[in-house]
Each structure stands twice: as structure tokens, then as C-alpha cells.
Design goal:
By secondary structure, the protein is mainly alpha-helical. The chain is built from ten helices and two strands. It has a two-stranded antiparallel ribbon with strand order 1-2.
Length: about 220
């Protein structure tokens, strides 16, 4: 990212918006992948240097991340990545399972022909990542975000994206200890096939099973 401090473009609302969005995604990924560990301070000045943007985009990104519960702002103390509690896993699963099921159901019903081709491409990609856990995490993220988009419900997409980011952070915390990551990712193949084939009810069932299976996998190592 190029530093735009002091330039005429810095005064452009569109430019500021794009910089804020870029800063948001960059910092979000640091938090989700635990590059910034839960409970660790989030240094605004360090981030402005690292990302090559001004303070305003970073501060706007932090406001958004606070609303999504990835950071916590304490007056006179600073900004910190939110802690992860074991209870978060069950609470997130409780709300995610039915919503993920609904997203899969609606995707099976509403996805366009072009989107079904996209889902078919993801299905074919499923086993190209070997046994590398992080690579498979990236693939899992691609699949879930595609499902949200193809559900054609922006409210559902926004809600699930927030919950997925919080759950993904838990996954990164335990990635080295989780057994059979390939089994978890392998579950996505039949799920994708049901949506490609417009099998809405079955898609809902498999999506719910997939979400609950992750909770069981984490609890099995604790």
C-alpha cells in the first residue's frame, strides 16, 4: 500500500474509503490469523507504518473491527485484540449452525448459473491443497464466503462473515493441535455438490453438520 499522507488525493472521500477498507482487511487478517494474538495491544502508529497509510484509515478500520468484536478500545489504555474464551466456541456454534444452514439452503435455491460454475470450481479445487493445514484453512474460507455471497441475502452475508471471522480465529489458535483437518475440509465437497444440484434441504443439513463438527473437533483436544 502506498503512503498518501499529504497528497491532494488524501482529501478525496473515495480515496479515504478505499484506504480504510484496505486497512480494515489487512488488520482483520492479522487478528483472525492470530498474527496479532488475542489480548495483545494493537498499535496504531506501528500499523500506519506497516500498511503505508495515514492514521485516519487505521482508526476507521479499528472502529469497524471493534463493532465486529475483534478489538476492544479502552480509554487512556489503547486498543487490544479481544480475548478468546472457550465459551465463545459453543456460543458461536449455537448461532452459526442455523444461519450457515440457511445460507446453504438459499444458495442451493438462488445461485445463478455462473455462481454454480464457481461452486463447481471450488469443489474441484478441494483436494489440491494437500495436507497443509493453513492452505486448507484458506480454502475453507473461500468456500464459506462464496456460499454467503451466493445466498443473495446481504444481511445474512454480513452476519455470517462476522461470525466466521471470530470462529476462524479460534481455528488458528488450535490449528497445530486439531486432528484430521482434511476430514473437515473434505466435508465441503458433498456440501458444494448439493448446492450445485439445487438440493436445498440436503444442503442445509450438511452445512449444519459441518459447523457442529468443527466444535466437536476443537473440544476433543481440550
Amino acid at each position: 500500500m502506498q503512503n498518501t499522507e499529504g497528497g491532494a488525493a488524501q482529501n478525496s472521500p473515495r480515496k479515504n474509503t478505499s484506504l480504510s477498507a484496505a486497512a480494515y482487511f489487512a488488520i482483520r487478517d492479522m487478528l483472525v490469523t492470530t498474527s496479532i494474538q488475542p489480548g495483545a495491544p494493537v498499535h496504531e502508529e506501528e500499523l500506519t507504518r506497516q500498511l503505508g497509510v495515514g492514521r485516519t484509515p487505521v482508526r476507521e478500520a479499528i472502529k469497524r473491527l471493534e463493532s465486529e468484536r475483534l478489538v476492544k478500545v479502552y480509554p487512556r489504555r489503547g486498543v487490544f485484540a479481544t480475548e478468546v474464551q472457550l465459551s465463545d466456541l459453543s456460543l458461536l456454534t449455537e448461532v452459526r449452525a442455523p444461519l450457515e444452514g440457511e445460507a446453504a439452503y438459499q444458495t442451493a435455491r438462488r445461485a445463478t448459473g455462473q455462481q454454480r460454475c464457481r461452486l463447481a470450481g471450488l469443489r474441484d479445487e478441494a483436494f489440491e491443497h494437500g495436507r497443509d493445514a493453513e492452505s486448507q484453512m484458506v480454502f475453507d474460507s473461500k468456500v464459506h464466503r462464496a456460499i454467503y455471497e451466493c445466498s443473495h441475502n446481504t444481511y445474512l452475508e454480513a452476519t455470517l462473515t462476522q461470525y466466521y471471522n471470530l470462529m476462524l480465529r479460534i481455528w488458528y489458535l488450535y490449528i497445530d493441535r486439531l486432528p484430521a483437518v482434511t476430514d473437515h475440509v473434505g466435508e465441503l465437497v458433498p456440501l458444494l455438490e448439493t448446492m450445485i444440484d439445487c438440493e436445498a434441504d440436503r444442503a442445509r443439513e450438511l452445512a449444519v453438520e459441518h459447523i457442529r463438527g468443527f466444535e466437536k473437533a476443537v473440544l476433543s483436544i481440550l
